[in-house]
Write a structure and sequence with these properties.
Elements lengths: L12 E7 L3 H8 L7 E3 L1 H4 L5 E3 L2 E11 L2 E7 L7 H8 L3 E8 L2 E8 L2 E6 L13 H12 L6 H11 L5 H5 L2 E7 L27
Antiparallel strand pairs: 1-5, 1-6, 2-9, 3-4, 4-5, 4-9, 6-7, 7-8
Length: 207
Amino acid sequence: MTTDAFDWAGDQMCVTFTRDLDPAEVFTRYGADPARSRLLDADAASDLPTGQFADGAVSLLRSGRLGDWTFCVEEDGVIGSWPEVLTALSRGTETYGVLSTEGLGVFQYWRDGRCVENFEPGLDRPPFPDPGPWRDRVQEALAEREGSGMAPVVALVLDHLGLTLDDATLAGPWPTLTLAEDDAPSAPRGDSYAGEGPVPPGAVEIL
């Protein structure tokens, strides 16, 4: 596993990987209108207005299908790490999520609307005695590439899924749009993970 070509995943980003959904459906589950998406390369996408504005935060979303999985890379936002969005993304399928922002890193794995694992890599002690099968793998990846942000974790997930999403691949043209935080899902979380620390994985296996 190498992270040399994963500068995009080093810091200030959020990415999800969802099985068996096309980019239009992924955008929809984020709360965006897929009809607004345009096929843009990284340079053109960087010209779109994102970040903090008077009416709130706006994220840049770029999505694409790689084999059985669809990625959604988010810049200037954290919408893809919200429980409401991950509940929607993973309903009827499964979703991996990695967040890196302002010194905070988070790994999440959701299946069929429920959180299986959620933790901050690098913490000395897991909040639960049995944190799940991904924690040790993520910790080892970070230890091998100390100082690389969450890029080693993204590389680990990509390797597990058998996908390539390096800098050169992401720089190409992909469906792209912007999404304001106020437009993202904020429905009641019901019996899904409510965000109070990692959920014990129990007998769930890594797929």
